[in-house]
Amino acid sequence: STLDPATDALIEARARVLGPGYRLFYDTPVHLVRGRGSHLFDVDGVRYLDAYNNVPGVGHAHPAVTEAVTRALSTLNTHTRYLHEEIVRYSRRLLATMPEHLDRVTYACTGSEANDLALRIAHRYTGRRGVVVTADAYHGNTAAVTAISPSNGDADTPTDHVRRVPAPDTYRENGTAGARFAADVRAAIADLDAAGVGVGAFIVDTVFSSDGIYTDADLVGEAVGAVHAAGGLFIADEVQPGFARTGESMWGFGRHGVQPDLVTLGKPMGNGVPISAVVARSVVSDSFSSDIPYFNTCGGTPMSIAAASAVLDVIEDEKLMTNAADVGDALRAGIAEVAGSSPMIGDVRGVGLYTGVEVVAPGTTDGDRAAARTLVNRLRDRQVLISICGRDGNVLKIRPPLVFSLSDVDWFCTEFADACAHIG
Ligand code: PMP
Question: Which PANTHER family match (predicted)?
Fold first, then answer.
């Protein structure tokens, strides 16, 4: 082993009780004990730049969230079968950020549960079970949602009703990605019809975070039109792009000029306190909930609602949407500058504080997974934390808390330039 004895012992003890499912990031795993804003601190007090975690959207250990949660937890934390004013107040506030036709909200705890419920609602409303999904998507880990999460590998649950369509690859399908995507979605719908299943839902993470991060505007409109024409519903999975990350809207679907029938929320919604939601048109939502009971014990409790309310407060008070736009642009400009002298960087793209960087074999558009992994590990050795995504595992995924600052950008770009220079 290459690590110090205490780290080795912890890794071993962890594996003994948690087993092989609990993967660790990096060749040299990081042992964190504290976080603040966009910075993390390890057991030796070393400071890291968090350029990866989106759950703490408003920053690690934000005092406003801590205070709201502490107050709620030390006052009352029951479930939704009792009257409580805060859930009504928050729901109104949340719905006010959405297009007017989306007027119902149902709370759960995880993004997986939200997507699971959205699928059930779509099935109920349309009478059709078919789902069209992108080819390397991740939408969660329940039995039903695993079936629509190809990035997990082959699902261990039935997928006869699922059709996979490659995401619009704006790097390799220059100018034609959206049209090709729509054509493939039409073919998938026809295939579901031919199989006697029919399309109930088309679900998209509108920044394609698992597929490889494709952030051009207007990529999904034509495909959504085809789904609507066939009587299917469009589910916008906002677990990744939602809550101001794109820097131009609270929601990622906004940049595609589309109207979702169902919107699913999660991750940053409670800044780490588990809370998620399905937002829908009432006619769609009620077609399910009028007949079928849905109760989620910890979904929408006073504590989780307090966290979610504090998150909206902080996004507004600290102008985090504007920050995401400005700092995200500065970050990509800095990375592009490094890319100019680094032939293994094929593309730098993103919106707000969601950035993807293609690591390729020089002179080609072929993804180089090994080089991407090396780069991620060399950055970790320089206390800068990111990860990778995409079909070929070669796209750097840079997705910091929304409080990322211009000095964080400088820190990132200095280490990024150095790491690139030491690889090739
Ligand atoms: N949808 C998307 C787009 C996600 O990225 C994730 C989590 N990575 C989920 C759904 C599932 O959320 P959770 O892990 O909270 O179940």
Answer: ALANINE--GLYOXYLATE AMINOTRANSFERASE 2-LIKE, PTHR45688
User: Per-residue pLDDT averaged across 227-242, rounded?
Assistant: 98
pLDDT digits (tens, 9 = 90+) for 11-32: 999 999 999 999 999 999 999 9
Cβ of 150 less than 6 Å from ligand 1: no
The pTM of the full predicted model, rounded to 2 decimals, is 0.98
H/E run at residue 14: helix 5-18
Q: Three-state SS for 134?
A: strand
CATH number of the structural domain 31-58+319-421? 3.90.1150.10
CB 271 near ligand 1, within 6 Å: no
Query: Does ligand 1 have an atom closer than 6 angstroms to the CB of 111?
Result: yes
Give the whole-angstrom CA distance, residue 401 versus residue 251.
16
Tokens of 396: 């750097």
Q: Say yes or no: CB of residue 140 within 6 Å of ligand 1.
A: yes
Widest distance between CA atoms in the chain: 63
Express each pLDDT in 95-109 by its tens digit. Answer: 999 999 999 999 999
Non-local (6+) Cβ contacts of 160 within 8 A are: 195, 197
Domain ranges of the chain: 31-58+319-421, 63-317
31-58+319-421 and 63-317: identical CATH topology: no
Whether 2 has a pLDDT exceeding 90, the answer reads no
Query: What spacing in Å lies between the alpha carbon of 156 and ligand 1's midpoint?
Result: 18
Which of 240, 245, 275, 397 should be mutated for ligand 1, with most atoms under 8 A from CB?
Answer: 240
Q: What confidence score (pLDDT) does residue 384 get?
A: 98
